[in-house]
Each structure stands twice: as C-alpha cells, then as structure tokens.
Write the structure tokens for this entry.
Amino acid sequence: MIGPIDGIRILDVSRILSGPFCTMILADLGAEVVKVEMPGRGDPARNVGPMVGHDSASFISVNRGKKSITLDLNSENGQNIFRKLVPHFDVLVENFVPGTMAKFGLDYQSIQKLNSALVYLSISGFGQDGPDAHRPAMDIVVQAMGGIMSVTGEPESPPVRAGVSLGDSVAGVFAALAVVSSLYQRIDSGRGQYIDISMLDCQVTMMENVFSRYFSTGNVPGPTGSSHPLAAPFQAFKANDGYFVVAMLTDDQEIWGNFCNAIEREDLHKDSRFVDNASRVGNLEALQGYLAKTFIKKSRFEWVEILSNVRIPCGPINDIQAVARDPQLIHRSMLTTIPHNVNGEWKVANTPFNFSESLTGPAGPSPALGEHNREFFSSLLGLSNEEIASLLDMGVI
Amino acid sequence: MIGPIDGIRILDVSRILSGPFCTMILADLGAEVVKVEMPGRGDPARNVGPMVGHDSASFISVNRGKKSITLDLNSENGQNIFRKLVPHFDVLVENFVPGTMAKFGLDYQSIQKLNSALVYLSISGFGQDGPDAHRPAMDIVVQAMGGIMSVTGEPESPPVRAGVSLGDSVAGVFAALAVVSSLYQRIDSGRGQYIDISMLDCQVTMMENVFSRYFSTGNVPGPTGSSHPLAAPFQAFKANDGYFVVAMLTDDQEIWGNFCNAIEREDLHKDSRFVDNASRVGNLEALQGYLAKTFIKKSRFEWVEILSNVRIPCGPINDIQAVARDPQLIHRSMLTTIPHNVNGEWKVANTPFNFSESLTGPAGPSPALGEHNREFFSSLLGLSNEEIASLLDMGVI
C-alpha cells in the first residue's frame, strides 16, 4: 500500500508551527516534503522547548518524515536556486508575514511562470489582505481575536486560552485540505493555483455554533467552565480520585431515569425540579449540589463504568500521562515511534487516519539541518561538488 | 469558477455535528451533499438550541447548501432503497455508534459490492475497534479523555472545556481531508476505500506539542491560564476596558527593549531579573505585577496599537459580538449570509478557503426535511408518483 498522495513533492519554506503542522499531515499522507531552511540556523522551532539531542522534542515530532535543505532566501544566489527547484515540485508552502515572499521575488505571480501546475499555499495570521494583514500573529493572538478565549474558562475568572496551539494546528489541517483539494482539481485542469489561509479565519469557522447562538438570540455567549449552555447534567464532576465528565444531551425521560437509577439517586428522578432537560438547566445549581455529594463517594473509574453500563456518555478527565497510557489509544496506535539518531527511537502523536487501502503515518525521523542538500542540489539540479562547496562557503546553502 | 471537488456526490447519513461539519466543508468545496434523514423527525440537530423558523440556528449553519431526503434505515424497504442510491454516489458518510450500519445491512463489506469506487467514511467517538469502540461519545467526553481539559484553565480551578465543540469539528476537518485524499487516490486506482476516523484520535493529534513536552521531560503538563509554559510576557493582561493578549516568544534583546520602550517602562529593560526570556519566565510573578500596573492605565485598543507599532504580536480578547464586527474578518467575508425561507437571509460563519482558481463557500440554504425526495426518488431512481406516495404512507420516506 502507498499513501493517498504518494508521489506529490512539496517545497516547504514554512517555519515554527502552522505550516510545518500542515506539511506533517501531508507527509503522513504520503507526500515527499522538503524543508527549505536558513543556513546555519534552520527552522527556529529546532530550538524552542525541551531539547532531545540537537533539536527540540516539538521539532522532531512535527517534522518527522521530512527532508531538509538549506538555502538563504535573502541572497540573490539563494533565490535563483530556489527558482530552479520550483519546476520539480507540485506544492509550495510558506507562512511568512505577508509580503515576505514578494520581497524575495518568490511570490505567486513570479513563481507561477516557472511552473503553472504548482499549488502555492500561504498561511498567515490574518490573511494576505485586509487592515490587519501585515500584523504578526501567534496562536494566543488568534485565539483571543477569534473568540474562543471569550467562551473558555470560569465565568468570573481571568480569560484562559485552550491549552494547545489550536490557532496554528487547526489552520494547518484546513490548509492541508485546501492543498489536496487543489491537487484533485489539478488532475482535470492541469493547472495549480494560489491558496490564502488565515489562522484567524480558521478560528472563526470552528466557532460556527457559538455564532449561531449569538445571531439567533443576540446574547453574547460567555465562558461556562465545563458545563453546556443548553444541557444538564453536562459537565465535570469530582470523584474521590479526580474529575470525570458526564454528557447528557437529551430530553428522554427513560435515560434520565436510568441515570438516577444507576447512581442510586431515585429521589432526583422523582424531583419535579429535574423532570426534563429544561428544568435541569433551570435548576442547575441545586442539581449540581446533589450530584456532587454522590459523585465524591466513588472513584472516577467506578462512575465511568456505572454510567457507561446505561449508555450515558462519560469519561475521566485524563492528564497527558493517562492519555499516553489509555488502552483505546494504544490499541489505535495513536502514540507511535519514529527513529531518532540519539535515542534510537522517539515517541510522537500519530495522525488520525485509518484507510483500508492506503498507508499513512510517520514515514521516518526528522531531518538534520541540510541533511538532504546533496540529494537535491547535486542529483536534482546537477550542481557539481565544487559548486556546492562554493555555495556552502558563501553561506548560500 | 467551480469548487475544487465539484461533481462529487455525497450520501450523508450522519447526524448532529461531527459528520455534518465534515460534509459542510465538503459542500463548501463544491460537493453535492444529500442528507438522508429519519422520516418525520430528521437530524436531531434540527431541534437543538435556539430555533429560527422550523430549524435550529446551528442546524441551518452546518447544513447550508445540502439536500435532504427521508429514508427509514430501520425498515427493509428503506435499506433496499438506500442500496439503490449507493451506485449513484462517490462518498458515503456516517457517524453512528460502531455496529449500527452493520445492523442495517449497510456496512462497508455489504455496500462495497454495489459500488467499488465508493469512499465510505465512518466517524465515531473512539474508532471502529478497541475496548472503547462501542461507547457513546460527546464532544466533552473526548475533550476530557484526549487531554485538552487537563491543560486548559487556571492551575487551581476546576477543569474547564475549550468553549466550542472541538471534539466534533476537528474530527470533521480531518475526516474531510481523508475523503478528498481518497478521492485523489481513486483517480489512479479506480477504487474507493473505507475510512475510520475517531474523534478521540483527532484530539490526540492536536495535542502533539503537549506530548512532546511530556515525553522529553517526564513532567505532566497542567493548565496555565492564558500564559505560555516557556515564554514571557505571553499571556492576557487587563487594560482599563477589558483584556488583551501579548505574545513575546523570543530571546531577542532588541525586541524586549522595544517592548519596554513602547510601554514607557525603561526600568524593566534595565532590570537584571528580566534580561532574557528564561529570566522573565523564572521571575514571572514580579514581571506580571509591574506590567499589570502599567497596562491598566490605557484601553486595550491603545495597547494593541502601541505594541503593534513595534511589531509585538498582540490583540484584544474579543467576545463574539466583537468578532462578528471585526474589520479584518468583514474584509475577508468570514461572516456571510445564506438564503433563509423565513428571514430572507441568515448569517453564518464561512469556511476559511481562499483559492485563486476555485469557488468555495456556502452554496445555498439548509434543506427542509425531505425537500429533495422527488428529485432523488423520482428522477434518480425512477420511482413513480404512486410508489412515492405509498412509501410516504408506510413511513419509509
């Protein structure tokens, strides 16, 4: 079996997270991804966070299965070599602040002439046009401006961000989908195209349900902790060994009865304040009080088993160690290993694809800086050993 | 211009959010999506949340541009009609609890024989196999079990969920990518395939950075409010009219100098406790105290302008109303309208695609229940008016 986009070659000048997360997914789907990095320094992500050997753990994870060449895009020489590479690739990915690739003379208008079949993807914080286009962005900035921070956390506490860089990674997944969609269309049209993905736009798409509530009621939604604005019981509860969640989103009398029966609180089933979902939402504080007293009496795993037996959606709130040890995730190979030059192997989170007829997943280790210079500059572009040595000398590669 | 996957036909028996969010994206990319709904009741999402006319606002948003037919998959008659539809479609999407489609006799093994080119997508909470496969799931359950709740919120407060249903919607985006990747591969192979996407798996993929930190240090990451575990200042601050975020992830002396200069706190620049990023993280509490006193003196828009001028990533924490009015998002058409039978039009969040050569975005209103029965049962399958009337009578459609 091969990956679904096996044979696709990607020239990737993106750095840090949004672009590299996108090309991680495309590499896991079978593409050959060639990172273009600054000579000497490389992708800044190589040095951010806990190090494992020469590179950060995060770099190793996001850049698995990719190749690395070095090229100084600030130099005319580097730009010329880049232009010579372009005809050999199907996709170009960049995530500089808008305008940077034009400054290099490598914007879509210039590059398109060299390869009309090229799919050229730009990811940026706010998009390529509009009043904020040229502002720098980071995950937390788009989480703040896209609205997710305004609905996350406790009602009276200071704002909190979702604890992972969703601003980058969600944009990376949408961008990967845009690339593969363009490759699909290219089969008929024979032509590539330009794709402009904004991290902030992607945040807004994910918030559609919150916008729906706002547009229909005019009420501005706020943070609700772990609870659901329209359902109860639907939140975190404390067991005697930690937290778990219960998620009842139903008006079915029988399910509410099963719930009360399973936790041995028939009194709640008979209580007219809790007779249907709307009543339970209306009398949430009283309901929470009763349930808290019951749930503190057993462990969260006992409760999850008791409630699962009557088919109420529920689960423990797992910390990262518990997630890494979860039998379901182990069964699904969601924590997997890649080769590593110092440790022998290194553990990473897998991509979530399971195809019956296609191979997916990490294809190899992350590359050392410039590890594949010879492969591309010599084999692909036909540069001589002397030329390569001279380019190295000048700091162009 | 046409959508990149124009001409693709999707038979969609999914309900609520994960599947419908996936097919919303595929419809926005140009596919023809036909919802198959229970006669009389339809997708339960039609009735969840604030209503706008006959359907909920959320249903209208997620199901824009789709068609609707009714079919009772519990009845043999309904199953037979479903089998007759299958050869006319490229993709099938379902998100029942695993085993349900097999119970209907409509699992991949059975259906594949009718259409070997069919891409058959299953989305579920935990995947099609493994010890938890048959448990029901909801967004909050996979947020809990996937680890994001363990790193979101304030350190000493009860756990909070990310305030939108990322468990569903992130799975929907990955699933859409898996479908288009399979369609791409199908052009060469001529064959479809089975795709198994788990909401929990998708959560784990998004957590890759958190796993990297855990695997490299052995420390179990906890919630950090709005702050960053490895950078400072990188968090929310209170201005005199609300909160804004600052995101400095650098060791560049000059940038730190620019920051202090811009906020007129040269004393902090000279303070040896804050001389580089590591020192600022180490002395975070002191730094936060000084900055809080400065930032409370002006409005968040003043601070955003001051800091943007020296190219420090920053932005206001917007509530949903502010997001809906954001000039950048208006410029990017991220809040757009679809036709609506009661209101004339209805506002929805757009998808984040911008292609130079492809058309994308909402293609029309959400369908009334069974609105397209005639189109598919009569035109496509050739059923007579009498046959359709009789099926209606029996509650099969």
